[in-house]
Design a protein that fits this description.
This protein is 33% helix and 27% strand. With 410 residues, it is an alpha+beta fold. The chain contains twelve helices and 15 strands. It is globular, with a radius of gyration of 22 Å. Strands 1, 2, 3, 4, 5, 6, 7, 8 and 9 form a nine-stranded mixed β-sheet that branches. Helix 2 packs across helix 3, helix 3 packs parallel to helix 4 and helix 8 packs across helix 10.
């Protein structure tokens, strides 16, 4: 990220999903999880907020996603975003649909808003019906837990196998108004490009229309959330939802606005931060892996190759074992389904050149192994075919990943 881009916005160190004007949040334990950790959370805006969303490409979309899409489609607005963890309400048939709508109705009544202003989402085990008496009781008690500083409680409520909460916030100037963009996410396993068991929530107090917000979210999702993978599995429940209160009071933002570049940069920062945090917190992970593919003929090719390398179980295993086996990287490049010139590929591990013009370079194996033992591994691939670049993020594949997922339901 260039110095000029960084100056367009400022990171708010203690910011959360409730930092933008008009937002509150909260969470509680309603009995979906066996532990006492929060499992029901909500984001509430004091006014109907302009809204946009992106949803999993898995053919088996969970019931809550259909409900949220229906809500947003009415007038492009949401005021309440309800989420539960511990149960995905996916592949649950007509009863699951009824339960998702029941959650929406209950939340609308509890917070005194129209039903179409409520979004619903769930995460957890697939194929089990929600214990609705517990959920409805939790929704009834939820308004009392909502507060301006409730961002951390909300973050706790959306976690499943995550080890850490994931949130960030930036501020920037639009005209003479201070605008905030914040985000919170969950995701640790069943993570693969084109969305994953990943829920993302973004809030802003900027004045921006739903249609423009949707276009921005689509573009940012392609270069951030859709560029991460943990294990190659795409979930039934993935969703990213953005709510814009408009309470900053700025002139309506469009690409023609003089401060659009700053808003877009801040928005992308939040998306990228959350995406990388999900990748870093992959189930059993010990390190973040970043793959950058440069010199591609098209953006599509750069993204496809980067995602193929980051998704390779062999590459991920080599990083876990600190084995500088660049052969696994070049093999992934070659099977990505994109044209490559097999005589012109360069590969670096950090600043260690291991392949140049598709020919092996003698390198210090001990230094490379030491580099791969670090908390972040950067893999650079240059195709020398064009000017397009893309970056993807993932994590290593460890013994703990198998342990966690071998006993996920127990």
């Amino acid at each position: 990220m260039s110095k000029q881009t960084k100056e367009l916005y400022t990171v708010v160190p203690q910011g959360s999903i409730t930092t933008p004007q008009g937002f509150r949040a909260g969470g509680l334990h309603c009995g979906l999880k066996k532990t006492s950790r929060f499992d029901l959370g909500v984001i509430v805006c004091e006014v109907p907020a302009q809204a946009a969303g992106v949803y999993t490409l898995n053919a088996f979309q969970a019931a809550p996603l259909h409900v949220t899409r229906e809500s947003v489609a009415v007038e492009g607005k949401l005021q309440v975003m309800l989420v539960n963890s511990g149960n995905a309400n996916a592949c649950t048939g007509k009863q699951g649909d009824q339960d998702a709508r029941g959650m929406r109705s209950a939340a609308a009544e509890a917070f005194g808003v129209a039903e179409h202003l409520v979004g619903v989402t769930s995460t957890g085990v697939i194929g089990e019906l929600l214990p609705m008496p517990k959920v409805l009781s939790g929704i009834e008690n939820l308004p009392a837990q909502v507060k301006v500083d409730g961002g951390e409680d909300f973050c706790q409520a959306i976690l499943t196998t995550d080890l850490v909460q994931k949130m960030t916030c930036v501020q920037l100037t639009v005209g003479d108004k201070t605008v905030h963009i914040a985000g919170s996410a969950k995701g640790s396993g069943m993570i693969h490009p084109n969305m994953a068991t990943m829920l993302g929530f973004m809030t802003t107090d900027a004045n921006i229309e739903s249609a423009q917000l949707q276009k921005l979210l689509n573009g940012v999702t392609d270069s951030t959330f859709n560029m991460i993978t943990v294990d190659g599995d795409t979930s039934t429940n993935d969703m990213v939802v953005v709510m814009a209160s408009g309470l900053a009071g700025n002139d309506t933002l469009t690409p023609e606005h003089p401060d659009w570049a700053a808003f877009e940069a801040g928005f992308k920062y939040v998306g990228e931060y959350l995406a990388k945090a999900i990748a870093r917190d992959g189930e059993g992970a010990t390190k973040l892996i970043e793959v950058t593919v440069a010199g591609a003929a098209t953006q599509e090719a750069a993204r496809a190759i980067a995602k193929t390398v980051i998704g390779s179980s062999l590459v991920k295993s080599a990083c876990f074992g600190a084995d500088a086996n660049w052969g696994r990287i070049i093999a992934a490049v070659g099977r990505a389904g994109q044209p490559v010139q097999t005589e012109t590929v360069d590969i670096r591990l950090g600043d260690i050149v291991v392949l140049e013009q598709s020919r092996p370079i003698k390198f210090d194996e001990e230094r490379a192994a030491e580099y791969l033992k670090g908390e972040q591994v950067d893999i650079h691939v240059n195709l020398h075919m064009g000017n397009e670049t893309a970056t993807a993020w993932g994590c290593d594949l460890t013994y703990d990943y198998v342990r966690i997922n071998a006993a996920y339901r127990t």
